[in-house]
């Protein structure tokens, strides 16, 4: 007699359902492996038994990577919208990290190799830190730590060279500053630039009128000299000038 064809419907008996799953699971995994090798494809297979036990298979890439590739597909290629997409991507990354850590723990040789690399890197950084600290001590040496004339001369030479470099830089900056300095932009220039009449231009014709009015006063005699600022001061404060005995010539 031939094999009775199994009707495709749920097996009601729990034991028979578990046995059927166990037999067909191995065949399904075998087919998935053959397909991934023959066609060189990414494949991820996840199954839960009737009792809730997990079975999974992936080809050349991790299941997390295959699922992330699927989630990152455009909606029209994926065939629908995935809810909480960002959360799923974050969870897949976390699962990948945990899987890699578990693999390292399962392989002590890999863990030891990583520890040795980290120790060598730490040693290199410690040497760089020590050299940097030694160079910094040259700028602020501790006299109690200097025990020989060679150390004194070496430290002195280093500090003098640093001082010379700073001095040269200062001269360079000063020369650039003086070259870019324009006296015409000074705030006092408008007071120091006289008109043809000898009166500062900042006060204009009003100051000339003040001087003329003061000269017309018979109580005061005003002489406008070569210094326009002093003449203006005498004009504005004649009483103070006379009380101090100042005479403008």
TrEMBL record:
Q: Which SUPFAM superfamilies match?
A: SRF-like
> Which is an annotated GO molecular function term of this record?
protein dimerization activity
UniProt keyword terms in alphabetical order: Coiled coil, DNA-binding, Nucleus, Transcription, Transcription regulation
User: Which intervals hold domain MADS-box?
Assistant: 1-61
Enumerate the Gene Ontology biological process terms: pollen maturation; positive regulation of transcription by RNA polymerase II; regulation of pollen tube growth
Q: Which GO terms describe its cellular component?
A: nucleus
Cross-referenced Gene3D superfamilies: Transcription factor, MADS-box
Give the Pfam families listed for this entry.
SRF-TF
Source organism superkingdom: Eukaryota
Intracellular or extracellular location(s): Nucleus
The name this protein goes by in its record? MADS-box domain-containing protein
Q: Organism, per UniProt?
A: Ananas comosus var. bracteatus
